[in-house]
Structure formats: C-alpha cells, structure tokens
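[#protein-structures] MJ: dropping GntR family transcriptional regulator here for a structure pass
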Amino acid sequence: MKLEPQVEELYRTLDRELDNFPTGAKFYSVRKLMDKFKCHRGVLDEVLERLEANRLIDRVPQVGIFSSVTRRPNARKVLLAVPDWPSELTQEWSMRASRYTETHKNWQLCKIMLTPDRDPVSSIDTAGYDAAIIQMPSTTVTLEDMMWLGSLPIPAVLLNVDTGSFAISNVRSADGDGAILGCDYLYRHGHRRIALVQSEPHTLPAEKRIATFRRIADLFGIQLIHIDCMTVSGEFAQHKAYLGMKRYLEENDGQPGFTAVYAVAGESVPGIMSALREFGCELPRDISIMAHSTEQIGRYYHPALTAVCADLEAEVEAAFTGLADVLDKKTPFFKTEIPMRIIERDSVNQITPDERI
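AK: finished. structure tokens for GntR family transcriptional regulator:
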C-alpha cells in the first residue's frame, strides 16, 4: 500500500512529537491531533495505524493513545522498506529486525511497505533517516535503481541482491551454496528423480537457486522434472504451488514419476503436500519433500519440513553492524554473504536402489 505524501509528512511530524512523551505517557487525543496538526481523520487513522505497527504508540479503546517510544535521543534511525506481499520470509526478517533494535538501543527502526512491481525503489522517502535497509519491491533491479541508491545521502543496504561492482552495500544468503546443499542431501538419501518446483516469481535469487540446483543435479546424474507454477509478485505461493503440482499430476495420469520434491520456497510446501495427497501419495513414504526456506517456516508442517535454511538472525546482525561501520566512517560500503545450513526434520525419506524409479 503506497502512502500518500500527506500521510508521510504527518507520520514524520508525529514521530518527532512522540520524543516529548516518555513510555507510558498519554499522547494527544484524536480530536486534539486533528486540531493541532490540521489533518483529516482518514489521514490520521492511517498514520496512527503505522505508528502502532512500528510500536511507537499503543491505542486503548475508550481510554486513549499512549506513547511506547523507548528510543534514546542519539539513536540512529533506520528505515526498513519491504514489499507488501504475503511472504513469511519477509515478515520473519522484519520481526527479527524489530527484536534486534529492541535489544540494541542505539538503533530505532521504522518500517514502510511497498507495492510489488508498482512502487519503484526511487519512491522511497529517506528524509529524516540515518540509514536504510531495503528489500527490492520489484522482480528486477535496473541500472536506474542502482544509480538512485548510489545517490542517496544516507547509507543503504539491499537484501538478497548482488550489487556487483556498484559501491552499494548488500547482505544476502548464499543461495547458490544452499542449492548445492539441498541437491547433495537428496542424492545422499537415494533420490535420482526429483521434481524442482518453482513456486516463486522469476526473481534473481530464485533463478540462481534453480540454475545451481540444475547444474549439480546434472553432475550427479539426477533427472529433474521442472514444475513452474507461474507465480507473479504478490500472489499466494501456497495456492499457486498447489495448482502447479495438481496440473502436473493430472497431465501424467496421477503418476508422479519422481521420488522427491525440492521447492524453491518453503512457504509453498503445504500446497504441494495437498496436491500430492489428493492423488494418494503418502509423505514422506512415497514422496520426500525439501525446500529452500528459513528455520521457522515448516517446523509445524506435517511432516515437519527438512530444509536448506537462510540464517536470518545472522543477516540482520550483518546489516546493522555493517551500517554502523559505514556511519562510523570505518568503511564506505560492505557486501556480506551469509552461509546457509540444513535443518533436518521428517520430510525426507532414505530410499534404497530398489525403491528408485
């Protein structure tokens, strides 16, 4: 959801005003805010929702608005800009960033949402912030994007984007190495025919996972079946994955023709599981499932998901410590790649040569 200029202006004004109200103090009433700052009720409601989402206020029905500001006067103010799409990974990254700033009082975090493939990165207003952490709102990164980022008066770090030779900071998971880990794991568990399910939009990170998985599968002599769910930005990956797997099974008379699935994103796995079960497959006895994911996603799936996991806690730490070094003039920019690791649970079955298709 794109915030109108008057909403942005009022948000910054009230954000500064809250510095005068210690934690627990009662803030202005809605009527007082409208009178004092000459704003419409719709604009004010949107700003108050955002302030509450950023944990700067608490609204108690029939009682009033209370300050939740715990920042210190010299705290560095960081803007976290993320796409407004149904991504558990994005939500988990935001949650961990919020927790980090709660325990590191020299940082203050504010978050905005960008509409995927509609709000360009250049639409971000960085006025009033000391630094920015940005997850790109589009599936591609253009030269214009990089030039705009390079012209910012504050340091910015991109998440999961390779900034190449540009002097722009980034923090990203080692997606390629993660794909190698996943392919090797399934191979060592006896799987030689694997469905590679592309349940995410055709973004650069997703394409890198797929290309690397394909290359390693070729080296191992694994036969891949590529199932492209044709997902676009903002669509619900679980449903698209369900439709993609169901379509494949219908076209093949309900015969999977593979012993394992590797999903590009763990969020899509429930949809894949549902489609397989509709065609009589028992998991993981008949079909094993593994995915590129995070530690939290999949832990309560049935069966619990074995996954190649991004270390989001390490990503958050790297982003903030890197920005601190840039702000302290220790380095002009930084580029950090975080290793991935396998979390073993219950969704991958060891099969014997006799059980291979």
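MJ: nice. Residues 24 and 326 are 34 Å apart (CA to CA).
AK: one more thing. The chain has a mean pLDDT of 89.
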